[in-house]
Write a structure and sequence with these properties.
The structure holds 2 protein chains of 2 kinds. Chain A contains 3 helices and no strands. By secondary structure, chain A is an all-alpha fold. Chain B is an all-alpha fold. Chain B is globular. In chain B, 50% of the residues are buried. The chains are: A mainly alpha, B mainly alpha.
């Protein structure tokens, strides 16, 4: 892979890694921090916070991973393809 | 080139096809066997035979898979030939991942602690995001066999490898002891054998797989074990759900039951008989406290009281059995002051624990129930401590999840990086099935206890209570403390470990279901033990012996040494489990804290920060481990006792965080030390920097 394609792919990888990590962290910490307040806010006579933590979060985790898997697969195939068709030899970019 | 890839893909499709067929046969056989047992029981097959049949059939299957996959080829032995398709690796990882603690422990902790127990559920699933995004693709692209291999290549020299191998051995060994303890607990419950015999049987089950066929055998038995454990977990759950609500989807039934439980909790909180029980326990605690203030006097007083009792019983010519019981109690009185002090203290603590509303269980759904954010400063403080502990434990388990060497090793068995990435998603999907079920099971069991068992006459309690109380009084006990002949919630003690194992009996299912659940727990513990044993023996045979001590060792020698080590390590772990000094969840969370602190910073920064170097990595790993070990030593009750730490617990804790979450300090300290030391020492070599570049993006032929 040419240095430019490498650089582009790695920057894109870093971006999506960062974005998903931030989402993951916010979900976890804010969700747990405001668990008790959530209960009062929703006030629908149903333990929403317990339900969110027990059942709601796990599919979100899976979603984060699935998004990452597909994004990476698409990015990699696109970069490898564009790299092959361009066939240029860029100068060093790091 | 592309035709080579084509052939490879064709070959792996045919391979996957063969796998599908074999496991379809296995699932059918298991279903037939279980249904067969159901009818055999109705025809009057004795219980002990059913238990033995389940034990022999499941362990026999694992052993024969292990036998057919036996190998001495190094690539097969260490990484299963790197041909495991993503979905199958997901299944194997799920079984590897879900240990005795997940299977037995999580529903129990959710039953006992309510919302607080969810930290385990979230921690053990959310960590897979870190694993998928930060580690798996890069480590798979690196290839090779173990985590210390990566540390050595990335940071250079023997030191990072040895520190890594040492940490991997420490973490996996602690975790292994817990699995063997779990195996023994389940086997003795299933067969009625002694706990020690259970250890030996479990040991045999573990050894046949890892000993004969290494990672290859372990992988294919783990897939079978996943099927057993998930079926075993879901069958009683669906049964309870149908029984209580007529709804075959537990997840729907559980919404209704959750509300009913909350309502029942409110009633029980104000129930006058429950209050009476609480007051009596409080009085007992106060009595023990009084004795503690003057131990020698209390000992004299106890002895006199028992002597008088024996004399009085003899004088009135009471039944022999009562006299004998009184005499035995007299003989069992503590002899030394230290013994007496310990006994009074444990009497006080257990009475205090029971002198709480709802037998010490917080309301099921209320987060951080020990405190109140709008209450007195004291209650506000408790609320904040509970909240901090929840978040700390959750994050510590998540980071530990991403850094567990035996799980990272599993992703080396996939054919490619893309397959490894997909495989993480499959793993989480299969793991989720059990973790989504755990809170549901806890709630349905609680409903059953509240609705069916509390309020029964003491003499009419279901049989399972007596059976478990006889097996281990520290797991189940009943005390009619107010002598009204009726069971109050406060008079029933259920340990967390029985909630899952006894769920079929609690729900009134036939005996075969109890055996099925026990077989599932056994599968969970055995599969994890296998993965851990492989990690430990690989670390010694591959990383220490081959890479450092004797680089000329042939692949066959390494495999043979690894097999020998599997045996030795398993025996050693069994010897420690024999001591029975094991609290499953405490040990497990310690192992996760240590794994996170030792590996996470060095692994992740090695990929994402090119400047990280050898000095930094070694210092960071040691600092992270050091802080975590120090925190565990000063705050974990068992270690405090062993080491004789006398400083009050509250002074040893930082921000009131429990020992279970000690990784929350170890990980940042490790990362910080790694960065600081790296910055003040030389840059990594050109070769190491080239490795980082290679890890970050795919090569053209990666496929």
């Amino acid at each position: 892979m040419s240095p430019r394609a490498t650089f582009r792919l790695w920057s894109a990888t870093k971006r999506i890694t960062m974005a998903l990590l931030v989402i993951w962290l916010l979900l976890n910490v804010l969700g747990a921090w405001f668990a008790r307040d959530l209960d009062r806010l929703m006030a629908i006579g149903f333990p929403i916070d317990f339900w969110i933590a027990a059942q709601g979060m796990l599919p979100l985790y899976l979603l984060i991973i699935v998004v990452y898997v597909f994004a990476m697969e698409r990015m990699e195939s696109r970069h490898v393809d564009s790299d092959l068709s361009a066939g240029d030899d860029d100068t060093e970019t790091s | 080139m592309s035709s080579a890839r084509q052939t490879r893909e064709d070959a792996s499709r045919i391979y996957a096809h063969g796998l599908n067929r074999r496991y379809a046969v296995f699932v059918a056989a298991m279903a037939t066997f279980t249904i067969g047992m159901f009818f055999a029981e109705r025809r009057g097959m004795p219980r002990s035979w059913i238990g033995a049949a389940f034990l022999i059939a499941t362990v026999g299957i694992y052993a024969s898979i292990g036998f057919f996959c036996r190998t001495t080829n190094a690539d097969e032995y260490f990484v299963a030939g790197r041909r495991v398709p993503a979905m199958y690796n997901g299944l194997a990882t799920a079984a590897d991942w879900m240990s005795a603690a997940s299977f037995i422990g999580t529903a129990g902790v959710l039953y006992l602690q309510g919302f607080a127990g969810l930290a385990y559920i979230l921690g053990w699933t959310g960590g897979y995001c870190l694993l998928a995004i930060l580690l798996v693709p890069y480590l798979r692209r690196f290839g090779q066999y173990t985590i210390p291999d990566y540390l050595a290549a990335r940071y250079g020299g023997h030191l990072p490898r040895l520190v890594g191998a040492g940490a991997a051995i420490l973490v996996s060994f602690i975790y292994l002891v817990v699995q063997i303890y779990g195996v023994a607990l389940i086997t003795s419950h299933l067969t009625g054998f002694a706990f020690e015999l259970g250890i030996l049987i479990g040991l045999g089950g573990v050894l046949v797989c890892s000993f004969l066929g290494g990672m290859r055998a372990v992988t294919w038995t783990q897939v079978a074990q996943y099927v057993v454990l998930i079926v075993a977990y879901l069958v009683p759950l669906v049964w309870l759900s149908v029984k209580q609500t007529g709804q075959p989807m537990p997840i729907l039934a559980y919404d209704m039951q959750l509300e009913k439980i909350s309502e029942r909790e409110r009633l029980l909180m104000v129930d006058s008989k429950e209050r009476d029980v609480i007051n009596r326990f409080a009085a007992r605690a106060a009595e023990a406290e009084r004795k503690l203030r003057d131990v020698p006097a209390a000992m004299v007083e106890d002895a006199r009281h028992h002597l008088e009792l024996v004399a009085a019983l003899r004088a009135e010519d009471a039944p022999l059995i009562r006299i004998q019981r009184a005499e035995r109690e007299l003989a069992e009185l503590p002899r030394t002051e230290a013994q007496a002090r310990a006994r009074f203290r444990s009497e006080r603590d257990s009475a205090l624990a029971l002198a709480q509303p709802l037998a010490g269980m917080p309301p099921q759904t209320l987060p951080y129930a020990t405190g109140d954010p709008g209450g007195e400063p004291d209650a506000r403080g408790r609320f904040n401590t509970a909240r901090i502990n929840f978040i700390a434990l959750m994050l510590s388990l998540m980071i530990g999840t991403a850094a567990m060497p035996h799980v990272l090793l599993r992703y080396q068995t996939t054919p490619s990086v893309a397959q490894a990435r997909r495989s993480v998603a499959w793993s989480l999907l299969f793991i989720m099935l059990l973790y989504l079920a755990a809170p549901t099971l806890a709630v349905l069991v609680k409903y059953e206890v509240f609705q069916q068992i509390v309020g029964l006459p003491i003499d009419d309690l279901p049989r399972w209570i007596y059976r478990w109380a006889k097996l281990d009084p520290s797991l189940v006990s009943v005390r009619d403390i107010n002598n009204d002949g009726i069971l109050q919630l406060g008079e029933l003690y259920l340990g967390g470990d029985v909630i899952v194992l006894a769920a079929p009996e609690i729900g009134g299912m036939p005996y075969f279901a109890t055996c099925l659940v026990a077989a599932g727990g056994l599968a969970a513990a055995l599969s994890t033990a296998d993965g851990l044993l492989m990690t430990i023996s690989n670390s010694i045979a591959h990383d220490v012996y081959y890479r450092v001590l004797n680089p000329k060792a042939s692949p066959l020698q390494r495999v043979l040494l690894s097999k020998l080590l599997v045996m030795v390590v398993a025996l050693l772990a069994a010897a420690i489990a024999w001591l029975k000094n094991t609290d499953i969840l405490l040990f497990v969370s310690a192992a996760f804290s240590l794994a996170g602190a030792a590996f996470f910073p060095a692994l992740v920064l090695g990929i994402f920060w090119r400047r990280a170097n050898r000095a930094g990595a070694v210092a960071g790993m040691l600092a992270g481990l050091g802080i975590t070990v120090y925190y565990l030593a000063t705050t974990m009750p068992l270690l405090r006792r062993l080491l004789g730490v006398t400083r009050p617990l509250a002074d040893c804790q930082w921000f009131g965080v429990d020992s279970a979450a000690s990784g929350i300090f170890g990980v940042p300290v490790g990362a910080l030390v790694l960065m600081l030391v790296s910055l003040v020492t030389a840059r990594p070599t050109a070769q190491q920097q080239a490795l980082v570049r290679r890890l970050r993006v795919p090569r053209r032929d990666e496929g």
